[in-house]
Amino acid sequence: MTPLICEMVLSSITGMLHCTAGRAVLGLCVSRQLAPWLSSLRSSTSKVVQVSPGKENEVLVENLTVLGVDIKMARRRQPGVLRKVITNEQGLARFLQAKGASREVVASIISRYPRAITRSHHHLEERWRLWRNVFKRDDEIVKILERSPESFFRSSDNANLEKNIAFLWSLGLTSKDLHRLLTTAPRTFSNSAELNRQMVELLQDICVSLGGTDPEQFIKRIISRNVYILIRSTKRVKANVEFLRGALRLSDAELLHLLQGHGADILDLSSEYIKRNFRSAEQKLRSLGCCQEGVKKFIILYPPALYISPENLKNKIDCLLEGGVDIEQILEKPRVLDFSAETVRSRLRVLEKAGYDFKKQGIAILDSSRKRFEAKLEKLSEQPEE
DNA sequence: ACAACCGGGCTCTGCCATCTCC
DNA sequence: GGAGATGGCAGAGCCCGGTTGT
C-alpha cells in the first residue's frame, strides 16, 4: 500500500472517530484492536487524534507499562504523547528489536523520548536508511539511539535529514568525518539544514574577514577538530571569536592561525565560561609573577587551558609547583596540563623517589603517555645518578 | 636513539524556550 | 490552547602514539 492510500484510509477512520459521540471510548477500542494495524498504515504526517482533553490513553499507558517504559519519566518529559489515541509503540518496539535493540533499550528510549512512539513504520524505515548512509552496521545506530534517543526521533522531517547529509558531503568532509560527526554529535543531523548552513557561512565569513584564502579548508578543519561546532549557536561562536580577539589582542593572522589549531577546540564553550576561565587563569598566572604578555603567550600556545575549570587549573598548577616544577617550565610546556591532577601527582611522587631533578632534566617526562613514561623511568633506574 | 612536536581518539545529553501549525 | 518542531543552553578533559628533528 502506498503512503497516500494509507493516509486516505487513516483519515477516513479518523473522520469516523471525530463523528462519533463516544469518541474516547471508541478511541480506546481502536487502540486495543486496531492499533497494530493502524500503526502500520500511519504515516508521519497523519492527523493527531486525542482522547478527551487532559486524559491519558489508558490502553496506551498499559501497553507502555508492558514494554517496561518508565511511565513517570515519560509523563514528565512529554505528557501530551500519553494522551494520544493512535501511536506506534508496538511497531517501534518491533522495529528497534529487529535492529538489535534489547527490550531494556527500547524501554529506555521510549521513557526518555516518548514522542518516538508517534513515528510511523514508514518514517522509521526511511530514517534508518538515511542513517545507514553514514553507518555500516545497525548496531552502531542502536548504540547512538540508546545514548541519545532525542537525536534520532526529535524531527519528523526525513527530507531535511537527507538535505543535511548532502550538505555536509558537499563541504568536502570525508566519510570518516561524517561518521564521527554523527556518532559524537548526532544532534547535528536533526538540526535544520538551514541552521547548519548558517554556521558554515559564519565560519566562512570569519575566515575571509581574517584574510584567509581557503575558507573551504578552514571549515573542514574547524568541523573535524571540533565536531560539536554545528550544534552550537552562531551567536556563541561569534561571541567567542570576538572574545579571543579582544582578550588576547590578536592580529587577524594570529587569530586565523589560532582558530585553525587548538582554538577550534574551545570555540564552542559557553561564552561566559570562556571569559570566567580566562580571568581565572590570568589571575593565577599573574599571582605567580607572570606578566600580561606571558599570559597571552600561554593561552595562544595552549588554548585548551580555557577548557579547564578554574579550580582544576589552579589545582594542577599548584601540584606541579609543589612537586618542584617552575612556573616558567609550565608556561613553556603547557601540555603537561593535559594530564589529570591525579596522574601528575602520582608521577611527581614516583620521580621524587627516583631523585629526578626538574631543574636539570626538564619536565618533558611528565608530558608523555603512560607507556613512554614508564619506559623513561626504567631507563632512569638503569642509569643511577652520578 | 631519543626528545620534541603535534594530531587526533574517546566524547555530549537532557532540558527549557519559542516558534508554528492545527 | 496544545502538541510538535526546532533552537539553544549548561556542564566542563585526558590520554596515546606517529612523525619529525637532532
From TrEMBL:
Cellular localisation: Mitochondrion
GO biological process: termination of mitochondrial transcription
Domain of life the protein comes from: Eukaryota
Subunit structure: Monomer.
Molecular function terms, GO-annotated: DNA binding; nucleic acid binding
SMART domains: Mterf
Record's keyword terms, sorted: DNA-binding, Mitochondrion, Phosphoprotein, Repeat, Transcription, Transcription regulation, Transcription termination, Transit peptide
Family matches, as InterPro entries: MTERF, MTERF_sf
Main location: mitochondrion
Name assigned to this protein: Mitochondrial transcription termination factor 1
Recorded family membership: Belongs to the mTERF family.
Purpose of the protein: Transcription termination factor. Binds to a 28 bp region within the tRNA(Leu(uur)) gene at a position immediately adjacent to and downstream of the 16S rRNA gene; this region comprises a tridecamer sequence critical for directing accurate termination. Binds DNA along the major grove and promotes DNA bending and partial unwinding. Promotes base flipping. Transcription termination activity appears to be polarized with highest specificity for transcripts initiated on the light strand.
Any one Pfam family match given in the protein's UniProt record, by short name: mTERF
GO cellular component, one term: mitochondrial matrix
